[in-house]
Amino acid sequence: MFFHIYLDRNLQLHPRHFGPHLRDKLIAKLIQDVEGTCSGRHGFVVAVTAVETIGSGLIRDGTGFVTFPVKYQCVVFRPFKGEILESVVTMVNKMGFFAEAGPVQIFVSNHLIPDDMAFQSDDVPNYKTSDGSVRIQKDSEVRLKIVGTRVDATEIFCIGTIKDDFLGLIGDPGGAT
Amino acid sequence: MASRSGQPVEEEDASELKLGEDFVKAKCLMNAEVALVLQRKYEQLQQLADDPSSQISQVFERSLQYVRRFSRYQNPDAVKQVREVLTRNQLHEFEVCVIGNLCPETVEEAKALVPSITKRGRMDEEKIETMLTDLATIKKFE
């Protein structure tokens, strides 16, 4: 899910940037520093939308760098366990398939794919029901539920399932169940 | 920013609206709303810089692609109306956005996707039905 949240951060700025454009420099640095980063606590920072306040700077002893406390608003993407979302399949293999929802990668293991769907190693590897009515392959759109998340320093990785009511392939008549 | 490492970490579960202390009061955004925000920012960046690609992070690009593909409502007015309809029913922010993103068609589907919706006796089937009809109408006349 995408959220709009307030975050704060201490920015260190070199004295050469001090002058009439100090505020612009700080905002540019903020955007450069935080956009595209990911933390386990707040998820992926997609875009800074507004800078709320810039506090008064504090000169660091010895270096001349100044630290400014900055409060800003941003759009973040944070997946949650139990959340249901839509995603695009990026890779299919016999262990399961990978899907992408915005910046986050989700793996759906073949244990979490309904039992009536089997792996087919055709030209385009896919999961298919025996009657062929539902077929999941690369670029399919799939609705899934997140059952677990793993967080490391720069990435969030999710495990998903499509073995539940109203999950699975979407945009395909009769395939949504 | 006091560290709260002493407290036990409550396990998060979106189906019961346990989002952790950072997000429980945060404003959620529907995909359609994110699409509006990012699209605007993308256009601004293109105007400002000669080489927009250097300014845009991979996370931004992938998010934009994603919300463009999955936003159910294109028209900004429609997006606003959807949010109005959903908040009128005293739903939690998170529930509002899940329903706005997934557009369930039946009451059964809505209950399966947002299990918390019937908890605490806030909504009965009739109310959900009316809400879903309202949403379908907005979509139709978008």
At CATH level 3, the topology of the largest domain in chain A is OB fold (Dihydrolipoamide Acetyltransferase, E2P)
By CATH reckoning, the class of the largest domain in chain A would read Mainly Beta
Number of strands of chain B: 1
Chain-averaged pLDDT of chain B: 85
Oligomer: heterodimer
Helix-strand category of chain A: mainly beta
Q: Using the coordinates above, name the CATH class of the largest domain in chain B.
A: Mainly Alpha
Kindly report how far apart the N and C termini of chain B lie.
Answer: 44 Å
> How much of the residues of chain A is beta strand, in percent?
over 45%
Radius of gyration based on Cα positions of chain B: 18 Å
The CATH architecture of the largest domain in chain A is Beta Barrel
Q: What is the radius of gyration of chain A computed over CA atoms, rounded to a whole number of angstroms?
A: 22 Å
- Work out the helicity level of chain B: 55-70%
CATH superfamily of the largest domain in chain B: RNA Polymerase II, Rpb4 subunit
What's the end-to-end separation of chain A, in Å?
22 Å
Overall geometry of chain B comes to globular
Unreliable residue runs of chain B? none
> What does the main sheet of chain B amount to?
none
SSE-based structural type of chain B? mainly alpha
The figure for the number of domains of chain B is 2
